[in-house]
Design goal:
Elements lengths: L1 E4 L6 E8 L5 H10 L4 E5 L1 H5 L3 E3 L5 E3 L3 H7 L4 E4 L12 H19 L5 E3 L7 H9 L4 E7 L12 E3 L1 E2 L5 H10 L5 E7 L2 H5 L3 H13 L3 E3 L2 H12 L2 E3 L2 E3 L6 E5 L2 E5 L4 E3 L1
Parallel strand pairs: 2-3, 2-11, 2-12, 3-6, 7-8, 8-9, 10-11
Antiparallel strand pairs: 1-15, 4-5, 13-14, 14-17, 15-16
Bound molecules: zinc ion.
């Protein structure tokens, strides 16, 4: 009996993804850093520059972070693209979508001095054309706003469904179910915006979730791009007869007859 595992021989992965690069990310990054949890942060390079601000229905001003603090703030976490200006893309033609994705990627790469390989769509509109643009711009995955509400990571990396939105009333039971599940390559992905933690007064609730994930010895914290790269690699491995063939350039982890084994890049492991 072979079971696929995450890096370090862990059975499950946890990812937290927050969008828009808002002021409350400062407190949130401090919180997850305390537990050594890695996050994915989706940014709009042009709104950052303009210090874009809007008023939440509850009256709170939602402020964006400025360029001069984001580079230090997100160190150790994934920064991904969320388009230049956060448009609703339903009426956009190909060239405009390419500009929104491609220029945001280039600006973020210049600002952070690192490759930006992930994309998350703003709002809830997604289409085959946006998926194609994400591919054409060189992104390795594109995340939709649609929730999967399950622990199975998406098979299509350009139609990546998020696990659960943090304001979903079933968040607690989703987390409980994840901590109990024995599903292969189970993933708990929570997405949202850190300003909601102020608006909904849920800092303690999120800290409790993060602390439980960090304390669980069978859970590994991964960014979205780390997940995508690892899943692509392990899903391409061949398991047949009494051998596992790792075709990828990453170390892969399995449970073989109850023991945890790692298979080096390009290696064939016989059992
Ligand atoms: Zn957004």
């Amino acid at each position: 009996m072979i079971k696929k595992l995450y890096p370090g021989g862990k059975g499950k992965a946890f990812n937290i993804t927050y969008d828009d690069g808002v002021l409350q990310d400062i407190r949130f990054v401090e919180l997850i850093n305390k537990y050594n949890i890695k996050g994915t942060f989706n940014l709009n390079s042009q709104l950052m520059e303009q210090q874009f601000e809007w008023t939440h229905p509850n009256g709170m001003a939602v402020k964006r972070l400025s360029e001069n603090i984001v580079v230090d703030l997100y160190k150790g976490h994934e920064v991904a693209s969320h388009t230049l200006t956060h448009p609703y893309m339903s009426d956009m033609v190909y060239g405009e979508i390419m500009r929104q994705l491609g220029r945001d990627k280039a600006s973020l790469e210049q600002l952070f001095g690192a490759k930006v390989a992930g994309f998350a769509v703003p709002f809830d509109y997604y289409s085959p054309q946006i998926a194609q643009c994400a591919k054409n711009c060189g992104f390795e995955y594109a995340r939709m706003s649609q929730e999967s509400l399950c622990y199975t990571p998406s098979e299509d990396y350009y139609w990546w469904q998020c696990g659960i939105f943090h304001l979903n009333p079933n968040l607690d039971s989703f987390v409980e179910g994840f901590l109990k599940t024995k599903e292969e390559l189970a993933l708990c992905q929570i997405v949202g915006h850190s300003y909601d933690l102020d608006v909904e007064d849920m800092w303690d609730k999120m800290e409790n979730i993060v602390a439980r994930m960090a304390a669980d010895r069978d859970v590994v914290s991964m960014t979205n791009i780390e997940l995508v790269r690892y899943l692509k690699a392990i899903r391409s491995a061949d398991i047949s007869g009494n051998a596992i063939t790792n075709y990828s350039d990453m170390e892969l982890w399995f449970s073989v007859k109850g023991s945890v084994v790692s298979v080096k890049p390009k290696e064939i492991y016989s059992f």
